[in-house]
Amino acid sequence: MLIDQNVKQFVETTASNEPVPGGGSIAALSGALGAALAGMVANLTVGKKKYVEVEAEMAKLAEDAAKLQEKLVALIDRDAVSFDDVMKAFKMPKETDEEKAARTAEIQKGMKYAASVPMETAETAFEIMVLAEAAVERGNTNAVTDGAIAAMMGRTAVLGALLNVRINLGSIKDEAFVAEMTKKCEELEEAVQKREQEVLAKVSL
Amino acid sequence: MLIDQNVKQFVETTASNEPVPGGGSIAALSGALGAALAGMVANLTVGKKKYVEVEAEMAKLAEDAAKLQEKLVALIDRDAVSFDDVMKAFKMPKETDEEKAARTAEIQKGMKYAASVPMETAETAFEIMVLAEAAVERGNTNAVTDGAIAAMMGRTAVLGALLNVRINLGSIKDEAFVAEMTKKCEELEEAVQKREQEVLAKVSL
Fold first, then answer.
1. For chain A, percent helix, then strand, then coil, each to nearest 5?
2. What is the pLDDT of residue B204?
3. Number of CB atoms found within 10 A of residue B5's CB
4. Inter-chain touch B148–A160, beta carbons under 8 Å
């Protein structure tokens, strides 16, 4: 698995002309790191006298962040294999009309799946924004920049994953599916940009 | 070293209340991943007939990206120890006036160093933007989203590192140093936002 590589190796494998990890896995990792930073701010807040009033909120924030982090870490590897079904489908026989139709159907099914994985990354990473905002507003002020960086990593995860959704939509013929996913892309893109600006505006240094 | 941890562990250590890695290391990692993605686009372009006209440019781009990547990978761990001198200085004796003066001087020296490390991360990561732009404009079009994600990871690296510069500047008494670093922060922040928007505007999906 990609996530078993050490950090240095993982970066080096990314740079190579190996097919994976690509931008989709990097988007998921960016999200995982964003969730981890939001969780870190919460963990640096819990147990501190000065922050006793937000103790319960921060304990819950740390838990929520850990769940997002776990999902996003898994998405690093899930994204790397999201195209496997498409590749398999391309190798199906295409002699007869029946074979051609079966092959096209499998390719289309695979492409939809390949678009749905980065959509899941984007939707999961979007949830970081609420956590980062709470961390910046009410978390340990010594870690305010960490909360801000969490929001930026989350934004990059969402926008990066959605670019991969969009490029895959280009090969999908189901117009209703494409329309629905495109609408989701537009909504998430706009929302995450707005959210990130709101979080960053709360950091005054 | 942090970079010897596997990806999953590294993310988990980030989330914990361990002092490192914090946002500065994550910013450096974001930069390293951005450089790696720009390099990947170049490596997926070199050797392809269709891109023979940009072969030399892309080979050079891959080399330049590898250098930035190496520097930024090293900065993950360098950032994690950047505060060590400050922590040591805080433990110096402060009985006599002489001791107090020596201690203050060492703390100030350490703080300047702690601000200079994320500045190096920011300046190094900023160089990704030119590479990402070339990758998106002239690299393998199949990897255009990877070039765009490289630009976003670079932007987050620059802005994230600069937040850490700014928070450290708050403890530095040398006004000329603070003024110079603040000016650099403002220039880099504006430039990287502009650059990122330019790169993303070139991606039409």
1. 80, 0, 15
2. 85
3. 17
4. yes
